[in-house]
Write a structure and sequence with these properties.
83% helix; 2 helices; mainly alpha
């Protein structure tokens, strides 16, 4: 019986030795994998450090860009405010120029009307030296021609002032003494 136990023991020891060898191989393989994992972890750690540094750089760039955007927004607001002011001033000046031109035109027109009123009074006070005591068609034609010439002078002076000087004349419109009517 003892030899059987010995054989059995040898078989058990052989199996144990094989298991030990297999375990050693497995442990060796696990050590290699563990080393590879450590190397990979080191690479991941380095990469993570680089990504963290990039994140910090990006955050700094973001701050700089936000600062620049705020500056641009402030400049835009300031320029928009200045543009609005200039536009309002331009509209006011345009309205003033228009009103001034209209006032000067009205003054010229009133001046012409006053001149014709004086001419009419002058004719009544000093009738023309002719054989007829009443004015004939020729005299009426003369009045019409004189009035037309006076209006042409007015229009040409107004147009010259608008074209050459960019606005109405600064000096008032002066009607010369000879307005085309009869002289006393």
């Amino acid at each position: 019986m003892e030899p059987i136990k010995y054989v059995e023991l040898n078989r058990i020891l052989d199996e144990h030795a094989e298991s030990e060898k297999a375990l050693q191989k497995t442990m060796q393989s696990l050590k290699i994998k563990h080393q590879a994992l450590l190397s990979e972890m080191e690479r991941v750690r380095d990469r993570l450090s680089a990504v963290t540094a990039d994140c910090h750089n990006l955050q700094n760039k973001k701050k700089i860009l936000l600062f620049r955007v705020q500056n641009v927004a402030e400049v835009y607001q300031r320029m928009h405010k200045e543009f609005t002011t200039v536009k309002r001033n331009n509209e006011e000046l345009t309205a003033q120029i228009k009103a001034e031109r209209e006032r000067e035109r009205k003054e010229r027109y009133d001046h012409i009307q006053e001149c014709w009123r004086l001419i009419s009074e002058n004719k009544k006070l000093f009738p023309p030296f002719s054989g007829n005591s009443t004015a004939g068609p020729a005299e009426n034609q003369t009045d019409s021609n004189a009035k037309g010439e006076l209006m042409e002078v007015y229009q040409s002076k107004e147009n010259k002032a608008d074209i050459n000087k960019g606005g109405p004349q600064s000096t008032p419109f002066v009607v010369q003494e000879d307005c085309g009517g009869p002289k006393p």
